[in-house]
Write a structure and sequence with these properties.
The chain is built from six helices and 17 strands. The chain is of the alpha/beta class and 306 residues long. It folds into two domains: 180 residues, 3-Layer(bba) Sandwich (FAD/NAD(P)-binding domain), CATH 3.50.50; 119 residues, 3-Layer(bba) Sandwich (FAD/NAD(P)-binding domain). α1 packs parallel to α6 and α4 packs parallel to α5.
Length: 306
């Protein structure tokens, strides 16, 4: 059995920041990541809103640097798919699909969340080539251009308002004839003069020639189809928190995120949640990093008292 003071599940910015702080606090620290360092950040070509990089930074390169930094202080990385988490007892147990078992006194869950996709055939291939799931991350790439926002909730409304200050024109495509967004988001949206609402419509196809050139939409009431020319498509139909392994053991919010406040503490002693998997207002690299530092601090306090 492999034993550590703390195990961090998830190697995104929250996970590797937590590992860095834990390792620097002289806690034996293991990070278990299913694929590659970085999470969603690692798939982002250019990050322009992370402090300290005047010309932006490649997401994968930043992820690799975060891994190196945590490992420089003694953190250990294991790349494996976690199959089960046993978090109720004072000694936490984690099993991976390759048969390995690990134990620790504390666990930091940095499981992340995945953007909900439209499910269109070429959607994945066009990510980073005109398809985006984060307006605040990628909006400046479309300064002075025309984009489409897909969705009708708070995120879609907020993204549209944000993009209206950058882009020449925005199509807001929603499958109903009214938005589901709250009044706090609708009021500023009403003042945006460069937004065209495309009601009762769904995206049938993303048009492209190696990068996005437009979308084909279908009216769900009349079946009429039309093509809209645009340079980018921002999909804002929600996120899916990666909480499948903990939904039976941890308290979740109605939206499915781990119910952990700014202290990152969950309803189980010695279990903390950081990054996109936690219910929060803003999901960005910088807020994930902040969560990781807080989770490490709370973990150190918990272990000291224990």
């Amino acid at each position: 059995m492999n034993q550590y003071d703390v195990i961090v599940v998830g190697g995104g910015p929250a996970g590797y920041t937590a590992a860095l702080y834990c390792a620097r606090a002289a806690l034996s620290t293991l990070i278990i990541e299913a694929m590659a360092p970085g999470g969603q950040m690692g798939t982002t070509d250019q990050i322009d809103n992370y402090p300290g990089f005047a010309d932006g930074v490649n997401g994968f390169e930043l992820a690799m640097e975060m891994q190196k930094q945590a490992e420089r202080f003694g953190a250990v990385s294991v790349f494996a798919q976690v199959s089960s988490l046993h978090l109720d007892a004072p000694v936490k147990k984690i099993c991976t699909e390759d048969g390995e078992k690990y134990e620790s006194s504390a666990v930091i869950l940095a499981l992340g969340a995945s953007p909900r996709e439209l499910g269109l055939p070429n959607e994945k291939n066009l990510r980073g080539k005109g398809v985006s799931y984060c307006a605040t991350c990628d909006g400046m790439f479309y300064k002075g251009k025309t984009v489409a926002v897909i969705g009708g909730g708070d995120t879609a409304a907020a993204d549209t308002v944000f993009l209206s200050k950058i882009c020449e024109k925005i199509y807001l495509v929603h499958r109903r004839d009214t938005l589901r967004a709250s009044k706090a988001y609708l009021k500023p949206l009403e003042k945006c003069e460069n937004v065209e609402f495309v009601w009762d419509s769904v995206v049938e196809k993303i048009l492209e020639n190696g990068k996005v050139t437009g979308i084909r939409v279908k009216n769900v009431k009349t079946e009429e189809q039309k093509e809209l020319t645009c340079d980018g498509v921002f999909i804002a139909v929600g996120n899916i928190p990666n909480t499948g392994l903990v939904k039976e053991s941890l308290r979740l919010t109605p939206a499915g995120y781990i119910d952990a406040g700014e202290s990152t503490e969950t309803n189980l002693p010695g279990v903390f949640a950081a990054g996109d998997v936690r219910q929060k207002v803003l999901r960005q690299v910088v807020t994930a990093v902040s969560d990781g530092a807080v989770a490490a601090h709370m973990t150190e306090e918990y272990l000291t008292k224990k």
